[in-house]
Amino acid sequence: MDDKILTNDEQKHTTTSRFICTANHGFAPYAQEELRRRFGKLKSSVLVSGEVFLVTLFEEAEQAVANIVSNPPIFLRHIQPVQLELRADADEALEQTAQYLLRQDKLYEASISLQARKAERSVAAESAGELREKLLQRLTGLNADFVVRDPEWVISVFAAEDMLYIGVSSPAENLSDWSGGAIRFQREEGQISRAKFKLLEAEQSFGIDFRSFGSALDVGAAPGGWTSFLLERGLKVTAVDPALMHESLRNHPNLRILKKNASEVRFRENEFDLLVCDMSWSPKQMVKLVKELLPSLGTGGTAIVTVKLMHKKPMALIGEVIASFEEAQMQVQRAKQLFHNRDEITLYMIKY
């Protein structure tokens, strides 16, 4: 393949655009299907099995990004525009990359996140970290502030097979300002479970201010990962689960524990302004239980629930779950497979 440079201005006037697309491991085929349903004709090739693929859309880059960002897909967690393609084993590849970036006026004196990733099947001699450092050394002329979070611009470099793929975009255009959309949180001392990371990520991804809520119902709460997060945010929490809550929570002044099955409890109407549920139950059982408890959620209240994907047709399953909740006066704000979801997605809903 010949080296190819496609500037931003040139991309605006071509009818095709190329992107590196990333999903959770094993879910790339569903991310491809989402794009196929949205754009119709496309071409794609696998870069990392089940996770990363290169897609060509037969639409201008600006329009394609606007389409994706305005209504983010469920399984596509990150996109990187491809504006420059070079042979990864070429001695001058990094120098050409640097020269291309130094011609981008918007990067001068800006805050920039330089993100480099590398597939196992890459001929590039450098690791992802080494690629990043070598490129940084060549970009001092930008007089930019290179940051990890909240940049104005993201420079993305992806090495796969015999190619380097480079793009410049705003964080919003990437769907995430984390490299590859892989949001990392540090495990805290005494943390009850990793399930807490799902709410931390939902807080960032969905822009939810959990401190704005007063009273929460946690359905299927044990051992208490989500409950502990909500208590930290200052909420009063009612935790429902027949299993034991973690001992560190049992005497918390803002926690009421009901050691029962969710099907056995009822609450006053409009008692809560937040309902959360992260149970390892079938989607049908989860929806039935949550819907029975929805009268206790006030109008305008928020619900965050995970949906376990238990068979090979997740798109149809998700459609059925959303339709069922909408029948119960829940408006789905986002359906997304978070980085910390495994074989599940997270729904963010508001009651109307």
UniProtKB/TrEMBL annotation:
Residues 193-281 form the Ribosomal RNA methyltransferase FtsJ domain. SUPFAM superfamilies: S-adenosyl-L-methionine-dependent methyltransferases. Keywords: Methyltransferase, Transferase. GO terms for molecular function: methyltransferase activity. InterPro entries: RNA_MeTrfase_FtsJ_dom, SAM-dependent_MTases_sf. GO terms for biological process: methylation. Transmembrane segments: none annotated. Coiled coil: none annotated. This is Ribosomal RNA large subunit methyltransferase M. The lineage of its organism: Bacteria, Bacillati, Bacillota, Bacilli, Bacillales.
